[in-house]
Specification:
Two copies of one chain form a homodimer. Chain A is built from 14 helices and 26 strands. By secondary structure, the first copy, chain A, is α+β, with helices and mostly antiparallel strands. At the A-B interface, strand 7, strand 10 and helix 9 of A face strand 7, strand 10 and helix 9 of B.
Chain lengths: 446, 446
């Protein structure tokens, strides 16, 4: 639904917001931050600042209903607010839009107390935006599934069930970190070529996976599947997600029950939850199936989802090695992909996840799976770029990479653009590889 | 460590405790219960009663240290208490032992206020004992892995990695229920013999899996693996676990990322956490590997674990059909197995889970995987008993079963026995199958 909060001609009085790469007035994502002595609390990103929702709730410039919503969203985790559902989310976004727009109702009052309401983002620390009960990772990138399958099963890259069932596995929620946290190179069992026995060692094939994260807003009771027509209303918002993976460990352990220690050591998400409302202009038709592809089963098929279940959002993967950092060289873009490449829509994922009666809870996280396009420079993992490490990529610094090295900084970012609309982004999802020997590595950028 | 709390000659003044099938004085497991108007709180099972730890903490009959422990354990979830670690757990168990033993210090005072301290279990409702962050299910039953593998991969039942890596997958924590909750028959994608396309329907192959559940006591920081020598100290206790599974859905969806909707609809656990202390007399050597089997890699190998990492505990699977219930026929035992059949020890599971640096948190739940022995009457799932449904089992009622039917009640129970020691049990882990059409089925026995 496009409304006046999407009007690109509307300006904000917050310095730096108009034309901001990620957070113009038309975005207003939710996150949890702390600043100085204040404890973690909910906020909204606007330009280079954060709107402090705890301060806003007490400022006396919202009506009672909106102030109550701001107070709920000001908690140290956004679960309770997102559980209120789409109407509450839309109401708070709309109220804040009116305060921060140059010509909005209440903008003068807000502007007068701007030093109280706005905190410079660079002075704040971001936290996980929700308490994540369960984390599920899908496998909806069909090009990725084909490319990855070719590494693990050269004779059978894309399995016969792929175009019928939205494949997914349950992931590890305890090790989900927010942007900026270091990732210690994991150890595990590595297969040894030509030998029956593996070795216990640090992974030699550490990889990233660029994904979209989906945060559940309203859950469902156990035993009551969410019909696909209602699925969209259960989504609280979106973030970027890096599903770090150790390919050698994965290849050895994944049969028959899927990846385990190859992925449970860390997952990184970007700190801001971008709302379905902010993304509305960037909806597009769902992935266009090929002529020979089966139609989705009825419980995964919905007219509205077919016409607007896709999302046009460009995802960029940046890499900065330790040597580049040392010489002041900025990160280099190694791939650019797009969420439109996902074979399954988010609504299909939600409907399939709950088809068994499985209950989702507010704050649960879904990953879409690695987003890859058909071209070599549009894939979402190093395994794909380097064909399993056999064809290293060359970096402008003169270095090359098969897989990640210690000190490598991986940066996911995303940008939704459409003619006539303000572009919006997600903020960064960064993680630096710490050596296997490091204990509790420092968190860079904090 | 065997001490006087294991002395079988010690008696309790609580009526019905001595010789109780599950909960004599020598057990004292922790759980969370509610009774009448009182909200959920921690308790200890003794005979047919529950010791109310909130009442105990305020009764003035414990020293200050033990009273503080009782107060922590009286919370509506046991996470905080279990996080205190083994010394605190042992101290509380010992203090309660002394109060409830006929000749214990403080037993006279406790006996005088027994109506305040003890609640009849039949009048109480049990709740999940911990708030479960992450749930991980292992696959440590080698006979089960072989039998199940033969169903899904007739040419390659036991994969080449099995004897090296403790296979596991991350499970779903939101749908874990406590003893007595109904399980709605799940729907999903079922393969159709001879066809490329599946159908969306209720499962025709609903199964149980009898497992031991392991509750984490003290967690570990992210990035710091738990060495096997320390792993035992991180276990807070044990319960029984039924990993309900839809075999037709599983067979279709499990490649390449493991089971998902085939298992995420429900998992049932018994309500009492049996302590490592209570189980100490029933330790035995770890699973004896065959002559051609590889030794565990060093990070999974420990002298103490080899000599006492196994557990001798008989697990019984009972079944009562609706027809049996209607005619007053008690449940029939359809299989009896033993935790000693597990190929990997619990310490090996903990060490492997964290080898990557994955953090465990207090209250996290591990399942051992289905426990099966080598004989047909010692397997832990119907799939194994009926060879994938092809050879139905006959019940004394004249009925037969390929897989579970609506109205079937599955009852897991367990008993540890050893000459010279009091036998202890776990309490029941029960679940009744509700029809696919039922919405939010009633919970029997509540």
């Amino acid at each position: 639904m496009i409304d006046e909060t999407h009007d690109a001609t509307r300006r904000s009085w917050v310095a730096g917001a108009d034309g901001h790469a990620d957070f113009p007035l038309q975005n207003l994502p939710l996150g949890v931050f702390s600043c100085g002595a204040d404890g973690p609390r909910g906020g909204m990103a606007i330009g280079d600042d954060i709107l402090d929702l705890a301060e806003l709730a007490g400022a006396g410039i919202l009506d009672a209903g909106a102030a109550a919503l701001a107070r709920t969203a000001a908690a140290p985790a956004l679960n309770a607010f997102l559980a209120l559902g789409p109407a509450a989310r839309r109401a708070l976004r709309r109220a804040v839009f009116d305060l921060l727009a140059v010509d909005g109702a209440g903008s003068q009052a807000a502007r007068q107390m701007s030093t109280r309401l706005l905190k410079p983002a660079r002075a704040c620390t971001m936290h996980l935006p929700v308490s994540i009960g369960d984390y599920t990772d899908f496998y909806a990138g069909i090009h990725h599934a084909t490319n990855a399958g070719a590494q693990f099963r050269p004779n059978e890259p894309l399995l016969g069930n792929y175009k019928y069932v939205p494949i997914a596995y349950h992931g590890r929620s305890s090790s989900i970190q927010v942007d900026g946290a270091a990732v210690r190179r994991p150890a595990g069992q590595l297969p040894v070529s030509g030998a029956r026995a593996p070795v216990h060692a640090a992974t030699d094939q550490l990889d990233f996976e660029a994904e979209l994260g989906v945060v559940i807003g309203t859950g469902n009771p156990m035993g009551e599947p969410i019909p696909i027509g209602a699925a969209r209303e259960h989504v609280g918002g979106y973030c970027l997600l890096n599903d770090w993976s150790a390919r050698d460990i994965q290849a050895w352990e994944y049969r028959p029950l899927g990846p385990f220690t190859a992925k449970n050591f860390a997952t990184t998400i970007s700190p801001w939850i971008v709302s379905p409302e902010a993304l509305a202009p960037f909806r597009r038709q769902a992935f266009r199936r090929g002529a020979g592809d089966p139609a989705p089963l009825a419980y995964l098929d919905d007219e509205e989802d077919r016409s607007s279940g896709g999302l046009d959002c460009e995802v960029t993967i940046g890499l900065q090695t330790a040597a580049m950092r040392g010489s002041g060289t900025p990160p280099v873009t190694i791939s650019t992909t797009n969420t439109a490449y996902l074979y399954w829509t988010v609504a299909q994922m939600v409907a399939h996840h709950t088809v068994s009666g499985c209950n989702l809870r507010s704050g649960d996280l879904l990953g879409t799976g690695t987003i890859s396009g058909p071209a070599p420079d549009s894939v979402g993992s190093l395994m794909e770029m380097t064909h399993g490490g056999r064809e290293p990529i060359a970096l402008p610094s003169g270095e090359s990479r098969r897989f990640l090295e210690d000190g490598d900084l991986v940066i996911l970012s995303a940008r939704c653009t459409r003619e006539g609309f303000s572009s919006i982004g997600f903020g960064a999802c960064r993680g630096m590889v710490a050596s296997a020997a490091s204990r509790r590595p420092d968190i860079p950028g904090r």
